[in-house]
Amino acid sequence: MKQYSIHDGERLVRAARDAIETHLTSPAFKADAIKRHIADFVDEERIFVSIEHYPTKAQRGCVGSYKQAVKLKDALIDAAISATEDPRFVPVSHREFEHMIVGVNLLSKPILIRHTDAGSMSEHVKVGKDGLIIEYGYKSGILMPDSAIEGNWDSKEFLESLCIMAGLTPDSWKMGAAKVFRFSSQIFKEISPRGPVEEILFR
Asked: Which end of the chain is less crowded, N or C, counting CB atoms within 10 A of the terminal residue's CB?
C-alpha cells in the first residue's frame, strides 16, 4: 500500500463525496466525469468508502474490496456509489446525505493470522494499529483499525465484535475453520459534512 499525503486524501474524499452526490441527484450520472479529477491516481489499491451520520458517527454504509487491489481512480468511485446501497442498511437518500461525513480507507494486503491454539489469536492483534477481517464459510466481515479505538475494545473484544459484524457468534474466531486476517490502513475522513478532511492517525 502506498502512503498518501493529506492533500491526496482530501482529493480522494472530495471525489467520493462528489460521486455520491451526483449519483443521488442525477439520473444521467457518469463516473468518468468524476474520474477526470483524480485521473493521476493510477496505483492499484484496496479501498473502502464509508458514510457516517454527523455528529453521531453512526455508520450508514461502508463498501469496498480487500481481496484484490484495483486502480484507485476506478475503485474509489465504485466503492462510493456502492456505499449508498450497503445491504446492511436502508439506501441513503440525497436529503439524508446532507448530514453525513465521508471517509476513504486505504488498506494494506491482508495477512492471515496463524496461531497454534484459538486462545492465542488475540495476542497477535494490535489494537490501534490493525484492522481485522474474518472469513468463515460463506460469511465474512471487516472492521477498520479506528473501530477498536472508538469502541474502546481490547483485542478480544475487537475479535468478538468482528464476528458479530459478520453475522457470526462472538466466539467464532476461535473455531478452526475461521480465517482471521489483519491489515494496516490509512484513513482520511471529513470532520463535518463538506468540512475539512483529516487523516486518522494510529498510535
From this structure: C
Task: Using a cut of 0.85, tell me whether the model's pTM lies above it.
Answer: yes
Give the whole-angstrom CA distance, residue 121 versus residue 46.
24
pLDDT tens digits along 9-50: 999 999 999 999 999 998 888 888 899 999 999 999 999 999
Angstrom CA distances, 170 to 55, 84, 174, stand at: 28, 28, 9
The Cα 13–Cα 25 span in angstroms is: 18
Distance CA 100, CA 175 (A): 37
At residue 176, the 3 state secondary structure works out as coil
Domains of the chain: 6-108+186-200 (3.30.700.20), 111-183 (3.30.1490.150)
